[in-house]
């Protein structure tokens, strides 16, 4: 695989579209994580357990300038700063100091051939390649033969921008999109969701320009394939807000990102340690084995949003169920405790 056209000239061995099994083995061998009792790879993403929106920028350039709603969410960055940081990312990869080479995933964002986007992810860490392999549509061997990416994400999570103040950034971490060149660069954060959410944003930019309305929802039809319905979910009732209050009471002083996309967020320094989970995206409780939930729960308390999608936990004696409902201008909480709570609740 020749990556010289984007400036990657001496990166060592390029490993393309390895299987999840091969990548998991590599991640363990390189000390990136360990395999749980149910076979799930567990890794520590460092201080970033959620996205870093204040470190996200879009290059202000002619191809997109009039199409972007600039502001606190879509923050502009000059091409000059992008070019400096892009050069640093290339230097980081071309140095190949760990002699580990490059991991590459080629695939598709979207399943409809009329609108999907060929995307490429370049990473150093095996678990980041696993993330892309799991999140995006895997191509057939025939599709790989003449694959040409429309957008490329280069993940340089192992490097930071020491000159971030001079460059006008928020911190040494950066997530920058150049729509004209079809490339994104990531540095300073190992949170995998930046790769996924980045492409989500790119699709939300390109598809409306093709006359396609994008919506963050699920589409369902009846048994005859008719009568489509869109499900946007019951957001905003306060599940994550309540979880944040519980985590604060347990001693956590930092940010509490919603685990809607990561499914699980862990807080090892609270008393007791807490696992915050959102099971909304599960299709079946059996998926918990792949996630390795029991490994996470060992010695920790579980804060579970959408517990019914995980099969429920009401059968556990120590379970405290809190159902939140919209009520007038506020919220109504219905609390039920398992047998271990008897005598402890009013």
Task: Describe the overall structure.
23% of the residues lie in helices and 24% in strands. It has 346 residues and is α/β, with parallel strands linked by helices. The protein folds into two domains: 4-209, Phosphoenolpyruvate Carboxykinase, domain 1 (3-Layer(aba) Sandwich), CATH 3.40.449; 239-341, Rossmann fold (3-Layer(aba) Sandwich), CATH 3.40.50. Helix 1 (20-29) runs antiparallel to helix 3. It is globular, with a radius of gyration of 22 Å.
CATH architecture of the largest domain, by name, is 3-Layer(aba) Sandwich
Question: What's the CATH topology label of the largest domain?
Answer: Phosphoenolpyruvate Carboxykinase, domain 1
Could you state the order of secondary-structure elements as H and E? EHEEEEHEEHHEEEHEEHEEHHEEE
Q: Domain count, please report it.
A: 2
Number of helices: 8
State the shape. Answer: globular
Q: Could you describe the largest sheet, including whether it forms a barrel?
A: 8 strands, mixed
- How much helicity do the residues have? 10-25%
CATH class of the largest domain: Alpha Beta
Give the DSSP E fraction (strand runs of 2 or more residues).
15-25%
**How far apart lie the N and C ends?**
66 Å
Q: Write out the strand line-up for the largest beta sheet, numbering strands in chain order.
A: 1-6-7-8-10-9-4-5
**Radius of gyration based on Cα positions:** 22 Å
Low-confidence stretches: none
């Amino acid at each position: 695989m020749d990556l010289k056209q984007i400036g990657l000239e001496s990166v060592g061995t390029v490993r393309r579209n390895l299987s999840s099994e091969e990548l998991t083995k590599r991640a363990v061998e390189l000390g990136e994580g360990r395999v749980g009792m149910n076979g799930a790879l567990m890794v520590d993403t460092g201080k970033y357990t959620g996205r870093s929106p204040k470190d996200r920028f879009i290059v202000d350039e002619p191809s997109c300038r009039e199409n972007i709603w600039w502001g606190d969410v879509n923050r502009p960055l000059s091409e000059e700063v992008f070019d400096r940081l892009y050069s640093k990312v290339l230097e980081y990869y071309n140095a190949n100091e760990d002699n580990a080479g490059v991991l590459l995933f080629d695939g598709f964002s979207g399943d409809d051939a009329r609108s999907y986007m060929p995307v490429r992810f370049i990473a150093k860490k095996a678990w980041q390649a696993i993330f892309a392999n799991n999140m995006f549509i895997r191509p057939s061997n025939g599709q790989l033969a003449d694959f040409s990416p429309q957008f490329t994400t280069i993940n340089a999570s192992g490097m930071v921008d020491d000159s971030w103040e001079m460059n006008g950034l928020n911190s040494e971490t950066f997530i920058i999109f150049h729509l004209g060149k079809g490339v994104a660069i990531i540095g300073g954060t190992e949170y995998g969701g930046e790769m996924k959410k980045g492409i989500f944003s790119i699709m939300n930019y390109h598809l409306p320009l093709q006359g396609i309305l994008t919506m963050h929802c699920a589409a369902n039809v009846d048994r005859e394939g008719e009568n489509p319905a869109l499900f946007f979910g019951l957001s905003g009732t306060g599940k994550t807000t309540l979880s944040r209050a519980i985590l604060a009471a347990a001693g956590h002083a930092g940010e509490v990102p919603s685990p809607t996309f990561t499914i699980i967020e862990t807080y090892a320094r609270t008393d007791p340690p807490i696992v915050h989970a959102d099971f909304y995206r599960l299709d079946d409780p059996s998926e918990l084995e792949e996630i390795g939930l029991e490994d996470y729960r060992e010695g920790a308390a579980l804060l579970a949003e959408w517990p019914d999608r995980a099969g429920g936990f009401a059968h556990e004696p120590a379970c405290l169920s809190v159902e939140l409902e919209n009520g007038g201008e506020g919220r109504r909480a219905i609390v039920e405790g398992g047998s271990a709570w008897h005598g402890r609740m009013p």
